[in-house]
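Reopening: structure tokens for the adenosine monophosphate complex, inputs below.
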Amino acid sequence: MCIVVAMNLIMLGAPGAGKGTQAQKLAAYLKVPQISTGDMLRQAVAEGTSLGIEARKYMDAGKLVPDEVVVGIVNERIRKEDCRNGFILDGFPRTLEQAKALDKIARIDHVINIDVPEEILVERITGRRSCKKCGAVYHVKYNPPKHKDRCDVCGEALYQRDDDREETVRKRLETYRNQTKVLINYYSDQHKLVNIDGNREIEAIFKDILAKLGAE
Ligand code: AMP
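Re-run output (same inputs, fresh job):
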């Protein structure tokens, strides 16, 4: 049985660590929204909004979208009714400035840091395939769909994100090292960090997260 008080969570980790996969499972289990800044930005790009046109320049280069832009998006999103019983931030914050801005607008309970060695991340990301329609994520080798290039959930064709190609992936990992990794210490100092070994099966990682949150 799942009896859990409202929790505001952050998923932290390098690109490809499995933040999105675990956030999605956790969101379904805890019945709270998964808030992925990457997904929101990709949606803006697909819709061709002025935000999307601006964000795309950074995303295609493996760089971070400016702090004030993403902080604004998150601030608006977490004020919505469906976040009242908790939320899971996936891919935000990614800089110290974002983390400090977040501290001013929300109470964070736990920060789940998914740790995966860097040499494994490149293979993980370049093999990643996503569903444009429902957002489900697969891996050609480690988590393939039942029917090649088709989503198990909704049957839509799967695609590779533009920024999941090797050159951009290496740049994104560098961005993580230079700008995001400091958040491990930031949240450790706040006694909110929950370290998770992300180099295991998806289900084993998920069970470990639930156990460490006391949410089993
Ligand atoms: P993701 O899907 O989380 O890997 O994000 C894809 C891309 O969106 C990143 O490489 C960034 O360019 C941009 N992005 C997502 N979240 C953030 C954030 N919190 N701050 C700045 N840029 C972000």
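The pocket of adenosine monophosphate is lined by residues 15, 37-38, 41, 58-59, 63-65, 70, 91-94, 98, 163, 172 (CB under 6 Å). The longest helix spans residues 166-180. Marking as resolved unless the reporter disagrees.
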